[in-house]
Write a structure and sequence with these properties.
This protein has twelve helices and three strands, in the order αααβββααααααααα. The chain has 274 residues and is mostly helical. The model has no long low-confidence stretch (mean pLDDT 87). Pfam families: Peptidase_M78 (PF06114).
Length: 274
């Protein structure tokens, strides 16, 4: 039921963005079509992740900002509203444009980045798959790991033993969790099975949030910036709510879900009073 509520919220948000698009030019949809073959193996998925990185013109190394990349490709990214905090991140191809909904309740920047890459996998690989399929979810995890940590780039950086200092450094560098790094090292056969088991046991003891958190969670800004641009032309929230036949509080909740919640620093121009 909560997933259906979240999807209905996303559909309303897409309607808001469509209305804004009548007044402001928005990014065109530029997602690659990388439909996975039937029963893809890990090599197939790694190839698709590499094609996706090439499509987005990503340089070697970490992905700078996954959410910003999605928005620049025309994807509507939203934080799930409070009514849906038990729903995990998910995505959908809506009639107007694809949407990714992220769960801010996790409060972990590394996990949020992985969630965004996981949902990108669904958008570019899985078009008709049933939601919740364990096979499909495992494929999306494999895609996200390769997209964020390409094997040929990270394999030489991963420690050959359980070195938490090194893993913490890599967490900050690549923007992924310690757990994702330990699993990646295991998958690439850099860590021995015994070291992998000890690493996972230690991570389970630490629980969440992991030690050494990243700075800020990546936040969407497309709705926020579009509305702010429109507001400068004199078209405010009241006019937009009337156009969409939406109650003003509902509209503001949607705009909030597509905005960066952090306060913005405004610097005074030279010559202005203090």
């Amino acid at each position: 039921m909560q997933r259906d509520q979240a999807l209905a919220f996303a559909e309303l948000a897409a309607d808001v963005l469509t209305a804004l698009e009548q007044h402001v030019e928005l990014p065109h949809l530029l997602l690659p079509d990388l439909r996975a073959p039937e029963a893809p193996d890990l090599a197939d998925i790694a190839k698709l992740a590499a094609e996706a990185r090439a499509h987005f013109n990503l340089a070697a190394g970490p992905v700078p900002h996954v959410v910003r990349m999605l928005e620049a490709a025309g994807v509507l990214v939203l934080r799930l509203p409070e009514i849906s905090q038990s729903v995990d991140a998910f995505s959908a191809h809506l009639p107007t444009r694809p949407v990714v909904l992220l769960n801010p309740a996790k409060g972990d920047a590394a996990r949020a980045r992985f969630d965004s890459a996981h949902e990108l996998a669904h958008l570019v690989m899985h078009f008709d798959a049933a939601p919740g399929s364990r096979i499909v979810e495992k494929e999306a995890d494999s895609f996200a790991a390769e997209f964020l940590m390409p094997a040929d780039e990270i394999v030489e950086e991963l420690p050959r033993r359980l070195d938490w200092e090194r893993l913490h450094h890599l967490k900050q560098r690549w923007g992924v969790s310690l757990k994702a790094l330990v699993y990646r090292a295991h998958h690439l056969e850099v860590l021995t099975p015994n070291a992998y088991r000890r690493g996972m046991q230690q991570l389970n003891e630490w629980g969440y949030p992991e030690p050494g958190q990243l700075t800020a969670i990546e936040a969407p800004t497309l709705l926020q910036l579009t509305f702010e641009l429109l507001e400068k032309s004199g078209y405010g929230s009241d006019e937009l709510a009337d156009e969409l036949h939406l109650p003003a509080p509902v509209l503001m909740e949607i705009l909030k879900a597509g905005s960066d919640p952090r306060p913005q620093l405004r610097l005074a121009q030279a010559g202005q009073g203090r």
